[in-house]
Amino acid sequence: MACARHVNAIQELVDGTLGSIRRAELELHLEQCEPCRRLADDLARIRDSAASLEPLTPPDRVWLQIAGRLRQEGRIAAPTPLAAARRTFMPLALAASLLLIVGASLYVLYPRGTAPDEAASAGNAPAADAVQGVETEFRLAEQHLQNAINKLQEAAKADDAAIDTQIASTLQKNLEVIDQAIAESRSALRQEPQSVPARDSLFDALKRKVSLLQDTIALMNQMRKGDAAGAAQIVDSANKS
Amino acid sequence: MSRMVAVVVAVVMVAAGAGQAHAQSAVRDRTVTRDRVVFVDRYQGRDRDQREQQTERSTRTLKLGANGEVYIANIAGHIAVMRGGGNEATLEIVKTSRGRTAEDAREMLELVHVDITERGSRAEIKTRYPQGEEWRRNNRRNINVSVAMTLTAPAGTRVQASSISGDISTRDIKGDVALESVSGSVRISNAGRVAAAKSISGSVEITDTEIEGQLEASSVSGTVLMRNVKARSLEAGAVSGNVVVQDVSCDRVEAQTVSGDVQFSGTLARGGRYELSSHSGTIRAAVAGDTGFEVEATSFSGDVRSDIPLKTESTDGRRRNRTIRGVYGDGSAVLDLTTFSGSIVISRR
Lengths: 241, 349
Known about the structure:
The complex is a heterodimer.
Chain A: H1 4-15, H2 20-32, H3 34-51, H4 60-72, H5 81-86, H6 90-109, H7 116-122, H8 127-158, H9 165-191, H10 196-225, H11 228-240
Chain B: E1 4-14, E2 25-33, E3 37-46, E4 52-62, E5 69-74, E6 79-83, E7 89-99, H1 102-111, E8 113-119, E9 122-128, H2 132-137, E10 145-153, E11 158-163, E12 168-171, E13 176-181, E14 186-189, E15 193-199, E16 204-210, E17 214-219, E18 224-230, E19 233-237, E20 243-246, E21 252-257, E22 262-267, E23 273-278, E24 283-288, E25 293-299, E26 304-306, E27 311-315, E28 323-328, E29 333-339, E30 344-348
Parallel strand pairs in B: 5-9, 5-11, 6-10, 6-12, 11-13, 12-14, 13-15, 14-16, 15-17, 16-18, 17-19, 18-20, 19-21, 20-22, 21-23, 22-24, 23-29, 24-30, 25-29, 26-30
Antiparallel strand pairs in B: 1-2, 2-3, 3-4, 4-7, 7-10, 8-9, 25-28, 27-28
C-alpha cells in the first residue's frame, strides 16, 4: 500500500501541478518505494487512458448530484430561489470537473465499488498491471484490517473481566454475527472472486469488527477508569434484580 | 460545615396501614447552605418481591448559567435531562436499595454516594460505589443500589452523560448532547446539537431534532431510530440491531447494519446521497415526494425489487434480480443499496 503521506503529492505529480522542489523530493522517494511507484504508474495510466477517450456529455442528473455533494461539503450554499434563477453553471462545472478528477482517483484507490475486471474493461487503460495493482491493494487492505482485528482481540481478551457477564455476552454474540458475515463473504469471494457485493460486504464486516473491538476496549477502559472495581458486579446484580 | 446555615426540618410520616403489603415510612430533611438547598427524603418499605426497600430522594440546585456544561456518570439507574426556565439547574437524585432486611437495605444505601462538583459553569455528577478496600471491608458480594437522576437545566446546557445499565434521555436541550449507555436506551428529542448517541445493547432514538452539522448514532444490538430529523448528514449503524430512518431531511444518509434490517422512508433531497447496507437483513426504501433519483441496488444472493417504475439501465437478467440500476424522474438524488444475502425492496410510501 502506498505511503499515506505521499498520496496527495503523487496525485499532484500525475496532474502536473507539483512544484519543482517537492517533485524532486517525491522522485527520490519513488526510487526507493515500490508501492508508491506502482500507484504513480497506475494513476498515470488512468490519466493517459482518460485523455484518449471520446468526449462524453454527462446526463443532467450528474450535475444535480454534484451540486448536492458540493453543498454537503459546504463548498456552496443551498440556493435560494432567486439565486437559483440567476446562477451560472460555469463555476459549478469547473468545480465539478475538479471533483470528478479527484473523485476518480479516490474511486480507484478506495477498496469499494467496481470489481477489478470491470474497472479495467470500463476504460481503455492497459489492463493487466493496473488490475494486479488494485488486487494487491485489496489484499493488503484486508491484511491490515485482519492484523488490527488480531491485535484488538488480544487486548480485549487480556482484560475481559472488566465487563459484566451480560454485556460481555452481548458483545460476543455480535462479534459472532460479524464473524459469520466475514466467513460468508470470504466463501462467496472464493466462488466468485470478482463479485462486488461480496467484496464490499467483506470489507464492511472487517471494518465493523475493528470498530466493535475498539468500542469494547474503550468500554473496558471507561469502566476501569471510573468505578470499575465494582461496576461489573453492580450491573450484574442490578440486571438480575 | 461552617457554611451551613441551618438544618431546618425533620418530618416523620408513617404511612403504614395495618393491612398493607407495602408498608412504608418517610422522613424529610432540608439542608440550606449559603449557595444551595438540598432536600433529602427517605422512604422505607418493601418491593413486590417482599424485599426491604430504602429510597432516598435529594434535590440540589446547580448554578450552571444559560450555556453551562454538565457531566453525569452513572452506573445503574436512569438519567433524564430536560429543559427548565432560568439560569439554574435542578438535580433530583433518587437512590434506591433493596436488601434482605431494612437494616441491610439501609447499609447499602449509605455505601453509595453521588459526588457533585461545581466549577464555574460546569458541574460534574458522578455516582460512587465502594471500591477496593472499602468493598472488601464491607464484605459484600453485591450492592443492590440504583441511582436515578433527573436534571432540569437551561436549554443551552451542554450535556455529557453516560450510564452502564440505565436509560438516558434528553428533551428540548439545545447545547451539545453526548449520551452513551451500555445496556440502557438512549433517547434524544428536540436537540440542537448531538455529539454522540451510543448504546451497546439498548436502543438509540433521535426524534424531532434539527441540527446544522453531522449526526451519528449507533447501537450494537439495539434498534437505531431517527425520525423527523434535519441535519446536513446522518450516520446510523448497528451490528445485530435494526436501523430505521423516517422523515429525515438530509443531504447524505448512511445507514448500516450487519444482521439487522434497514428501513428508510421519506422524501429525498435533490442532490442527496443515501447509502443503505445490510449483510443479511432486508433493506426497505419507501420513497415519498417527487424528487427523482438514480438507484443502484445490489445483492450477492438476495432478491432486489423495485415497485417504482424505473428507467432501467441494467438488471442482471436473471429471473430474480440481484442488481438493479435505474433512474426515476430527473435522477437528482442517489440511492445506493447493498446487501449480501438480504432482500432489497424499493417502493413508494
